Amino acid sequence: MYRPSGPERGQGPHVADTNLGADPYRVRAGLAPALVPGIPMSIAPGIPMSIAPRMPVTVVSRTPVSIAPRIPVTFMRVGPEVAQELAQAMELDDEAVVLQRFARGCQCYAGRIDGKFVTYGWVTFDEESIGELGLSFRLQPGEAYIWDCATLPAFRGQRLYPALLADMLGELYRAGMHRIWIGADEDNLPSQRGFILAGFTPVVDILMTGDATMRKPRVHGRPGVREEIVDDVCRAIFGNSGH
């Protein structure tokens, strides 16, 4: 099931390509300041790499920010034991998709208010597809990719999404992750504002060119971003065969 991007919605679940006619198709990518020396602060530290349909952002190891939501909420990592409840929050027909994600090693973090899940986000540590881009993002050891994040409509506008991201970053850093990626539609401004609050910085733009029969991704480094960071993004998408 594909749900269009909306306020405080990050990456979508695995879906078939629904925008083959889009030409060009834009995405962005970013990286949080700190672990990567030489990235000038003029790149608006805090803006993560956002992608037009869906594209990862990278966060570099540092002390995570603390974000206070506007309403009381309890954040936690959840597991298969709450699959049915989580599926309901995700507006899924059954829990099969949730259980499949846990079975392949994904993690899920969520926020509860009055015992109910109101916001959630998923994390992958090996390889994840990037929404309608029709691409896969291959992670290196010590990297994580945050995706399929959402806040229930009745609870949006309360800073729950950036607060959840900040909580996830803290947990992932403590678990030994040194680089964390995330993504969202290029025109998904609420998600981008959440990225900014959580501490991401842009690193690349991704442009999909071509038509319905042949689309090609092009990766462009953002101003001031070191070439090796752009190369890391290219390797994650294209592998070591060149790009």
Description:
With 243 residues, the protein is α+β, with helices and mostly antiparallel strands. The protein has one domain (25-241): Aminopeptidase, CATH 3.40.630. Helix content is 21%, strand content 28%. It contains 5 helices and 11 strands. The chain has helices at 83-89, 96-103, 160-174, 189-198, 227-238, and strands at residues 25-32, 58-60, 74-78, 107-113, 116-124, 127-130, 135-138, 143-151, 179-182, 202-210, 215-221. Strands 3-4-5-8-9-2-1-10-11 form a 9-stranded mixed sheet, with helices on both faces. A two-stranded antiparallel sheet has the order 6-7. A hairpin with a 4-residue loop joins strand 6 and strand 7 (135-138). The protein is globular. It starts with 24 loop residues before the first strand and ends in a 5-residue tail after the last helix.
Secondary structure topology:
Elements: E1 25-32, E2 58-60, E3 74-78, H1 83-89, H2 96-103, E4 107-113, E5 116-124, E6 127-130, E7 135-138, E8 143-151, H3 160-174, E9 179-182, H4 189-198, E10 202-210, E11 215-221, H5 227-238
Parallel strand pairs: 1-2, 8-9
Antiparallel strand pairs: 1-10, 2-9, 3-4, 4-5, 5-8, 6-7, 10-11
Termini gap: 32 Å
**What percent of residues are in strands?**
25-35%
SSE order, as H and E? Answer: EEEHHEEEEEHEHEEH
CATH first level: which class?
Alpha Beta
State Rg. 17 Å
Portion of residues within helices: 10-25%
Number of helices: 5
